[in-house]
Amino acid sequence: MDLRERAAAALSAARVRTAGLTDAVTDGELAAQHSPLMSPLVWDLAHIGNMEELWLLREVAGRAPMRPEIDPLYDAFEHPRSERPKLPLLAPAEARDYGAEVRGRVFELLERTPFEGTALLDDGFVFGMIAQHEQQHDETMLITHQLRPGGPVLTAPEPGPAAGPPPEAAEVLVPGGPFTMGTSTEPWSLDNERPAHTRDTGSFWIDTAPVTNAAYRAFIEDGGYTEPRWWASEGWDQIRAHGIEAPLFWYREAGQWLRRRFGVVEPVPGDEPVLHVSWYEADAYARWARRRLPTEAEWEKAARHDPVTGRSTRYPWGDTDPTPVQANLGQRHLRPAPAGSYPAGASALGVRQLIGDVWEWTASDFLPYPGFRAFPYREYSEVFFGPAHKVLRGGSFAVDPVACRGTFRNWDLPVRRQIFSGFRTARDA
User: Fold this and answer.
1) Confidence of residue 162 (pLDDT cuts 50, 70, 90)
2) Contact between residue 327 and residue 341 where contact means Cβ atoms under 8 Å apart
C-alpha cells in the first residue's frame, strides 16, 4: 500500500485498539486511577483526541480549536499523572464523542492533504506520528489494565509453544567494527532515531534470546535480592526501601511462584522472558551471571547489522514489515512468547526475539545522536535526554508494529517496573 493508505490503516487500527481497551471496563473504572503511576484511562482517551486535533486539525489544516478550554487538562507536561484524577476531565461519553469528531475531520483532511511541501507533511509524517502516539498510549492503557484490580476483562489467544527448531547456542558472537546506527530514511521515524551515523563496537557475545523466568528465578533463589554486591547503590536502596524480592506481580505461595497477569493468577511460566523488572534488577541479574547488559549500540548492531552485506536493515530479518511469524507485536497475545520463539524473525547473526515480546533494558543513558534536531517539538525526546533515563529497545507484545522498528528508541527511569520490560545479557569477546 502507498503511504496515504498506510496512514489511514494505521489510524484506524489504533482507534479499534483504543476502543477495545476503553470499552472493556465500566465508566467508573475508566474514570478511576488504578495506580498513582498511571493516568485514569479516560484521561488517555481524551488526550489522544486532543493531540490529534492539535497537530492535524490546527497545525496542518489551520482550523480554530474545537475545545480550547480542555487543552491544559490534556497537556502531558502541565499536570503529573498523580494529579490528573482531580482535574475536571471529560466524562467517558464526552471523551469518546470528542475523539470521534476529531477523527472524522482528520479522515477528510487525509484525503486531500499533499504528502510534501513541509517536513511535517513529507511522506505523511505527521499522520504517522499521530498513529504512533495513539498506539503508545494504547500500550500505556494496557499497563493500566495490568495494574487494575479485579478479574480479567481482556482476552487474546495464547502464543503457543515455540515454533521451529530451538536456537543452536545460548549466545551469539557479534564481530567488532563499524555499523550504521539510526536512520535518515525511515519516513515515520521519530526525532531521537535520527540521523543515521556510524558507530564502532568491539566484538561481543549477546544472548540468543531474552533472559527467562526460570533463569531469573535461579538468581532469586541464590539470594540475589539479599546480596548488595550485585546491585548499583541506588538500586540496592530501592529494593530495601520497598521490600522488593521478585519481579512486580510475582508472589510466593505454598512454595510456588505465582503471578497476576491481567486479572488472572497463574504459575510463573519458566520458559517465558522475564517481565516487569526494573533496570536495576536487570543490571543486578547480569552482574550475578558474570555478564552485563548490552549497550544500546551493541543491541542495535545485533539487531540490524548484516556482516555479509555490511548493511543495517530495518528489522532483524530484513527490510519487510513485521508479520505474525516474525514477532509477537500488537497485543495479538497478552503475554510474551516462549524464549527462543520466532526463528523467522532472527537477525542475520541468529539472535531471536529482538523485536516484540519484551522491551529490553540496555546499559545506556538516553542521549541524542550526533546531529540530533528536535522535531516537531522538544517535549517528545529532548527534555528526557541525560543520565536519569535508561534506554529500552525492541518493543513488547503490547507494541504495535507502527511504533516498533530496529531503530525505535524507548526510555524510562531505572526504577520503573510496571512497564513490559525484560532484558538479555552480553559479555565482551
Assistant:
1) confident
2) no
Distant-in-sequence, close-in-space partners of 377: CB < 8 Å, separation ≥ 6: none
Mean pLDDT for the chain?
A: 97
Quick check: 274 and 247 in contact, CB under 8 A? yes
Q: To the nearest 10°, report the CA torsion of 314, 118, 13, 17.
A: 100
Residue 368 has what DSSP assignment? P
The whole domain housing 55 covers 3-147
pLDDT digits (tens, 9 = 90+) for 119-133: 999 999 999 999 999
**Separation between Cα atoms, residue 364 and residue 343, nearest integer Å:** 27
pLDDT for position 135 = 98
Residues present in the chain in total: 429
pLDDT, tens digit, for every residue of 412-429? 999 999 999 999 999 999
Tell me if the pTM is above 0.70. yes
Q: Are residues 111 and 211 in the same domain?
A: no
Same domain, 138 and 213: no
User: Judging by DSSP bridges, how do beta strands 256-261 and 264-267 pair with one another?
Assistant: antiparallel
Same domain, 101 and 205: no
Angle between helices 41-52 and 92-112 (to 10 degrees): 30
Q: DSSP per residue over 302-367, as a string? A: HHHB-TTT-PBPSBTTBSSPP-TTT-B-TTSSSSPPPTT--GGG--TT-----SBSSEEEEEEEE-
